[in-house]
Amino acid sequence: MKHVNSLISIIIFCLFLNVFNTNAQQKEIPKEERLAWFKDAKLGIFIHWGIYAVNGIDESWSFYNNYISYTDYMKQLNGFTAKNYNPNEWAKLIKESGAKYTIITTKHHDGVALWDSKFGTLNTVKKTPAKKDLIKPFVKAVRKQNLKVGLYYSLLDWSYPNYPNFTRTESRYKKDEKRWADFTKYNFGQLNELTTFNPDLYWFDGDWEQPAEKWKAKEIRALLLAKNPNTIINSRLQGYGDYATPEQGIPITKPTSKFWELCMTLNNSWGYQPNDKNYKTVNQIIRIFVDCISMGGNLLLDIAPKPDGTIPSEQVAILKGLGRWTKKHKEAIYGTRAGIPKEHFNGYTALSKDKTILYLYVDNKPNGPLLIKGLKNKVNRIWVVGNGTKLSHKVIGKQYWSSVPGMLYIDVPEKVQDKDVTVIAILLKGKVALFREEVKAIESN
Ligand code: H79
Predict the structure, then answer these.
(1) Residue-wise over 345-370: b if at least 16 C-beta within 10 A, else e?
(2) How far apart are CA 127 and CA 112, in angstroms?
């Protein structure tokens, strides 16, 4: 009896531990902690690689929108060779651009998986002359460069026989719980496989086609975080993501989400399209980049490799051009926070994490000294980022009887100016303090 009693106690104790444990597992690491590296990273490189590069047509959308038949779209499988694929070279180039993370398409809306999936047969191993898992060596190469790695995955799959939507004009079924259950199983199966790559980030897309309950978005989040409690999920999981993802359009006003990332193409296409020569210049990209930084966000720039795995020369040149600028200005990029309101400086700004350094991004040739208004701090030192030149400043118009700070003028000689964007650092006495009151009639000053 005594034995039975102690056995029961042990069982109860174990049960208790178990319950306790489960609770602990359900508790997520706070977002601020999980997304700390992401907040500091500022620049990422997106990669859209898939069979759409063979004909150089729109990724997945070309058959969805009936620009090409599904059969003809899928013929591209035969031309996807990956024969010059060199993930180590890719990773080196990404590193050289100054990016701190990179995200690759593991499966776009066309349903073609780039890894050796055991779910379905539509993947690069089984259906293309590449005959290879392309994700595994990519993850390895990226990690070797000490970069964070993210996996893009389309929740919707316009190829899967039991997924309801097919093209803009044709669907497979409207409501069929059995077929949907089969798709769900497939989706979770593939996601489970992706967790074995242990990515730092999941970048979902295509969530707009179904509500959260149908995707089982909550369960997807739970699955991914159970496998790696530090991982990050973008917003496209019907409310179950961590950070906002504006696409193509640079936000005009500062996004309300504390964590966000603008994804943007280098020309007008996500995938490789040799006809599309409408590339943004390095200068334009750098200016877009500082625009994002000034609003506390990241820029995720997309490259589009050819079907053989080479990166188009125009794209290599842009990444290298960007790399020149990011290397020179690293102290004013990584780990910075959003800058000060435009009323104080007519241009882009950012602050150091501790708010004691104000960075000015000068993207035009100044016509005379730069002007900062309403800065209450005393200035300790001003220098040109990347070349160390110290700059002098003058405070004009400070009245002893007024609390309105004087106007701070900084001369930026031509010879210290960068050919793209010059960055000026201002070391403040203490944390930045701005005068934001309404300036009333003289008697109230
Ligand atoms: O992979 C790239 C694109 O193929 C994919 N995301 C990037 C990263 C993408 N392209 N377009 N979209 C995502 C958004 C599509 C929006 C639309 Fe709609 C789908 C417009 C019309 C149908 C969603 C549903 C928005 C409006 C209705």
Answers:
(1) bebbbbbbeeebbbbbbbbeebeebb
(2) 9
Test site for ligand 1: of 205, 234, 272, most ligand atoms within 8 A of the Cβ: 205
Residue with token string 């303090």: 433
- Evaluate whether 184 touches 126 at the Cβ level (below 8 Å): no
Q: Which residues, in sequence order, are CB contacts of 42 under 8 Å at separation 6+?
A: 100, 289, 292, 293, 298, 299, 333, 334, 336
Please tell me the distance between residue 302's alpha carbon and the centre of ligand 1 in angstroms.
Answer: 15
Domains of the chain: 2-328 (3.20.20.80), 337-428 (2.60.40.1180)
Q: How far is CA 306 from CA 152, 271, 296, in A?
A: 18, 8, 33
For the full predicted model, state whether its pTM sits above 0.90: yes
- pLDDT, tens digit (0-9, with 9 covering 90-100), for 163-221: 999 999 999 999 999 999 999 999 999 999 999 999 999 999 999 999 999 999 999 99
Question: Ligand 1 mean position to 61 CA, how many Å?
Answer: 9
List residues near ligand 1 (CB under 6 A).
59, 205, 208, 247, 263, 270
Index of the ligand 1 atom closest to the CA of residue 154: 1
Tell which one of 62, 66, 270 to mutate to probe ligand 1, the residue whose CB is within 8 A of the most ligand atoms. 270
Nearest ligand 1 atom to alpha carbon 203: 8
Query: Which residue has the CA at smallest separation from atom 2 of ligand 1?
Result: 270
